[in-house]
Amino acid sequence: MCRVSSAVRHRLINFLQSLGLLAAMGGMAWIIVATIAGPEVTAAIIIGSVIGMMLLPSLPKDALLMAHRAKRITGEQFPEGVGTLAELSRRAALPRVPSLYYIPSKLPNAFAVGSPEDSAICVSDGLLRLLDLRELSGVLAHEISHIAHNDLWIMGLADVMSRAVSIASWIGQFLLILNLPLVVSGQAYIPWHIPLLLVFSPTIMALMQLALSRTREYDADHGAASLTGDPDGLASALSKLERKTGRFWEDIVLPGRRIPQPSLLRTHPPTEERIRRLREIRNLAPRPRMPGALIEYPVRDDLAPPRFGKFGFFQ
């Protein structure tokens, strides 16, 4: 009962944090866009965006898979991985088992795309080389938790608001520059807080988006541990990823990039903190643990070093 209460409290706190951050981002988006376009146009933009997000609950799955040169992994090619994904999806009560895709990249990477009804999980060549099956199970459970909790839709909504603020900020700054002669000559008056909002609002939105992503990551870690009954498996995978890549890839992906690519390293909290939290929940109700055998999937030896692809993704 104590473990159940702790899990419920954890989920409630994360939900409230996510709700608060989304509300703050929505408020900031309203202020900035309304300053430039007026409240009526802003209301129309918001209504249109919400309808669009409801009709298109995630980024176009096929387009992202094509951009990453992803190839479908069948049960004949990788029965352990596909079987593990099916079992984890059953435990998560997903309406449909996500498809598993292989990405020809040396960068250790995993991400999910789509909606609970039609989703895919991609794993890179570098990830399959690095992890054993137990650790991969933790990573797959992490991505399944994102899908089950609709995190892809939530982060997509945050993406739309962040981009709207960024565009409005640039337009507003351009208009300010055009009207600068009138301001200097005293023919126009602009409240002092308007330029500050226009300059700093994209950074504030980026920080809130980062905080939202981190909250969802902690929740996905907790969900993965619940699905596998083996938080140490995911902790071991995270430790290997940290040793293999360090903070180098995050330093490349994050600076100056408003919405980084979906990735196991995307805007994540410090690995040490994630591992600490996972080890604190070792007493979750145990489930049959996934095997720790080496992964037998035909990885490639002719891949180029990680680089930015023609679609702008680092792979």
TrEMBL record:
GO terms for biological process: proteolysis. The keyword Acyltransferase does not apply. The chain crosses the membrane at residues 12-35, 41-59, 164-184, 190-212. Its main location: membrane. It comes from the Bacteria. The keyword Transmembrane helix applies. Belongs to the peptidase M48 family. Residues 86-281 form the Peptidase M48 domain. It is a multi-pass membrane protein. Keywords: Cell membrane, Hydrolase, Membrane, Metal-binding, Metalloprotease, Protease, Transmembrane, Transmembrane helix, Zinc. This is Peptidase M48 domain-containing protein. GO terms for molecular function: metal ion binding; metalloendopeptidase activity. Gene3D superfamilies: Metalloproteases ('zincins'), catalytic domain. It is found in: Cell membrane. GO terms for cellular component: plasma membrane. The gene is htpX_2. Binds 1 zinc ion per subunit. Pfam families: Peptidase_M48 (PF01435). Its cofactor is Zn(2+). InterPro entries: HtpX_protease, Peptidase_M48.
